[in-house]
Design a protein that fits this description.
two-stranded antiparallel sheet; Rossmann fold; alpha/beta; Arc Repressor Mutant, subunit A; 7-stranded mixed sheet; 16 helices
């Protein structure tokens, strides 16, 4: 028999739910604005009308007017009166400037593909088997690349690598480097551009990501960067790599235990493994208490990270918030690593660990 809800709590709960729906609509409009180049058109801070924006972009004024109204109502754009809207400097950094470390529009660019997997997820809930990242198509790989790319381009080489003792000097002398779970190859390309004496190898399972990685290396004119489908060309076991990286991928893997063991076999005895993964905590309550984006991350996990981590039978299924520091330490130790240190970098989402044999 249906229960009778408390009227005040009912109103509060319904408001919260529809606020979430409003956020979904705003996310869709950000995706649209990014695809149409509207934030780049608004960059510079000048307040414009829909007529002026239509003249600048060649797009329909009436559609632009509705989009501007939504973005103004959501607080994404600033309303300057007289039906004119502007992009604040902060919004420009997040939505228009792909070279700024705070750039975030890339995460919205593959939103249609990400939400599209909703049609497949009921079957995943019934069978327990999820979808790998190639289920998101080529645009999904591009979205992941754009999401991570700004940080790689602006901070990886000048800020992060110098904090890892001995790595910059070794890269300058010339060593072999592996990026495990390399995605579109942006991190590897940035390191290779900075340290041309070394040799670089990226390992990945996503065919769409590998296509982008090879194109990115070619566009940069790099001949010392090579990419491998790890299912066809696994990591070598001869300890040839002086430096190994894995950025935001271990929690996505069906079998991270075997991958960590493979990294140990591929890493030289004096080598270094740099891990970047989501700042996670041990258990639901700790994640919700200490992470204001926990709801976003658990939802992202269902759509992408957990789905990938369960895309093979017997997958460990860590998911977005599954690889907390204690577990990472344990898995590294079990694979034969003797040293595990947290690297303090100012990153809003990721934790960094330096691991040595």
């Amino acid at each position: 028999m249906p229960r009778t809800p408390d009227p005040e709590r009912l109103q509060e709960f319904a408001g919260s739910v529809f606020h979430s729906l409003q956020g979904a609509m705003t996310s869709a409009m950000i995706c649209l604005g990014d695809r149409l180049g509207l934030y780049q058109a608004l960059a510079g801070g000048e307040a414009v009308s829909s007529e002026a924006l239509a003249q600048q972009t060649g797009l329909s004024e009436r559609w632009l007017r509705e989009w501007l109204h939504q973005q103004g109502a959501a607080g994404v754009l600033e309303h300057r009166g007289e039906e004119r809207f502007a992009l604040s400097p902060e919004a420009e950094a997040v939505l228009a400037n792909e070279d700024h470390p705070a750039f975030g529009a890339g995460w919205f660019s593959s939103l249609p593909q990400t939400m599209g997997v909703l049609e497949e997820l009921p079957e995943a809930f019934r069978t327990g088997i999820g979808l790998d990242y190639d289920a998101l198509g080529a645009e999904g790989a591009r979205g992941v690349e754009r999401g991570f790319g700004a940080w790689f381009r602006s901070l990886l080489v000048p800020v992060a690598l110098p904090r890892v003792e001995g790595v910059v000097e070794a890269l300058g002398r010339g060593i072999r480097v592996a990026d495990v779970g390399c995605g579109g190859g942006v991190a590897l390309v940035e390191i290779a551009k900075a340290f041309p004496a070394s040799e670089y190898h990226g390992y990945e399972t996503s065919q769409h990501a590998l296509d982008r990685a090879r194109a990115n290396a070619s566009a940069a004119g790099l001949e010392n960067v090579h990419f491998h489908d790890v299912r066809q060309e696994p990591l070598p076991e001869d300890g040839r790599f002086g430096f190994v990286t894995s950025f935001d991928c271990l929690h996505d893997m069906p079998d991270p235990v075997s991958v960590i063991q493979a990294i140990r076999g591929a890493l030289a005895e004096d080598g270094v493994w740099l891990i970047s993964d989501i700042k996670a905590h041990d258990g639901y309550e700790a994640n919700v208490e200490r992470n204001p984006m926990a709801a976003l991350m658990y939802g992202t996990s269902v759509l992408t990270c957990l789905s990938s981590a369960l895309s093979e039978p017997g997958g460990l299924g860590l998911g977005t918030l599954g690889l907390h520091e204690q577990l990472a330490r344990q898995l590294a130790a079990e694979a034969g690593f003797a040293s595990f240190e947290r690297l303090e970098l100012d990153h809003p989402v990721n934790a960094f660990y330096v691991v040595r044999p």
